[in-house]
Amino acid sequence: MTRSEDALASSTSDASLARSKARSAEIDLAIDQDPSRFRVLTGDRPTGHLHLGHYFGTLRNRVLLQDRGVDTWVLVADYQVITDRDGVGPIRERVLGLVADYLAAGIDPERSTIFNHSAVPGLNQLMLPFLSLVTEAELHRNPTVKAELEATEGRAMTGLMLTYPVHQAADILFCKANIVPVGQDQLPHLEQARLIAQRFDKRYGRVDPDQPVFRRPEALLSEVPLLLGTDGQKMSKSRGNTIELGMSADETARILKKAKTDAERLITFDPVGRPEVSNLLMLASLSSGEAPEAIAERIGDSGAGALKALVTESLNEMLAPLRARRADLLANEDHLLAVLAAGNERANAQADETLAQVRGAMRMDY
Ligand code: TRP
User: Fold this and answer.
1) Rg from Cα positions in the chain
2) What NCBIfam families does this protein map onto (predicted)?
3) C-alpha to C-alpha distance for 224 and 205, rounded to whole angstroms
4) Which of 33, 157, 179, 352 is surrounded by the fewest CB atoms within 10 Å?
5) CA of 233 to the centre of ligand 1 (A)
6) 10 Å Cβ neighbour count for 34?
């Protein structure tokens, strides 16, 4: 890429980010006016335990959307586990753990649909027609796939890794979701899903001229607080710097006691100059609802020890009911399995209906 092309590419993506943000604000208003116009799809890979980054970043937002009356679908993306690993790991335990986290956080299985990839054949079958609608070059250009490949440190890219944005398009399109709450890094996947929906219509026409087979999903960019791990680095399970939802109050206290801070006794909220201290203030703020600046002022020159004690207390207090529900849920595996089975039944009914429309459009309905 030449320098000017480079500049062009980054300015276009700035412009499209600004557009996505503006559109997200419009969607947010439209939800308040009429939540029944929307169906949300979100999901997680069952690769480990959920931590505070997941909770404050996505889980809490899903519960809010559900409680505002939006039809919410939550996918346990079990086939996506093997995009970048050789095996599925302790998959059963992780899937059930994820379902328990969802329910404990407030996802209500009566109103929302919790389901998993491998139980919904119709969803996965969409992969075939969808793969015919994208080119190999296009897949290689996907910036998120590129970034994820770089993070795997020279590991060979599998066909599933290369094509997972198409599988993700199937996740979104099969259930006719029109909004997908995402972080910025997932925007290219949404664009891919929209392109597939458009190309499908263009190539196969519409059975009903007023009704495209697929909806055009849009991103709902959420204001996600940038939380760091307790060592001040990017929060990630592999760095051991996270606080998991399922940890005990004592474990939480122990981890926070070891959290990195700085030598300045006076506590101030300064995310750029004092990232570690500010991150702890942010955690206290997110769990108590009080502004980080106000918390800092209250602690004053009592130092990092006092700050850690306060964060520990407010986090443990906020998480206590969630943790209690989670423990109860995990003790009742049959209930978790029943929730998943009910969600999968709904997802299969929808997938079969969508697949019938796809076969109809493709004149494969013999
Ligand atoms: N890629 C998402 C993650 O790693 C999980 C996911 C799978 C997803 N399919 C999706 C998210 C469809 C949104 C829409 O967390």
Assistant:
1) 22
2) trpS (TIGR00233)
3) 39
4) 33
5) 24
6) 9
* pLDDT of 4 strictly over 60: no
pLDDT tens digits for 276-298?
999 999 999 999 999 999 999 99
How far is residue 237 from each of residues 20, 224, 228, 315, measured CA to CA in Å? Answer: 29, 18, 12, 19
Mean pLDDT computed over every residue of the chain: 92
- Mean pLDDT across 228-248: 89
State residue 3's pLDDT score: 33
- Between CA 253 and CA 261, with CA 257 as vertex, the angle to 5 degrees is 140
Q: CA-to-CA distance for 192 and 86, rounded, in angstroms?
A: 26
Cβ–ligand 1 distance for 213 under 6 Å, the answer no
Q: In terms of CATH architecture, what is 237-331?
A: Orthogonal Bundle (1.10)
Q: How far is the CA of 297 from the centre of ligand 1 (A)?
A: 39
**Element at 75 (helix H, strand E):** strand 71-76
* pLDDT tens per residue, range 44-99: 999 999 999 999 989 999 999 999 999 999 999 999 999 988 899 999 999 999 99
CA dist list (Å): 57 to 54, 62, 293, 361, 366: 5, 10, 21, 39, 46
| Pocket lining: 171 vs ligand 1, CB cutoff 6 Å | yes
To 5 degrees, how large is the angle CA 71–CA 325–CA 48? 75
Domain ranges of the chain: 35-226+333-362, 237-331
User: Could you tell me if the CB of 48 is within 6 A of ligand 1?
Assistant: no
- Spatial separation of the C-alpha atoms in residues 144 and 166, rounded to whole Å: 13
How far, in Å, CA of 107 to CA of 115, rounded? 12
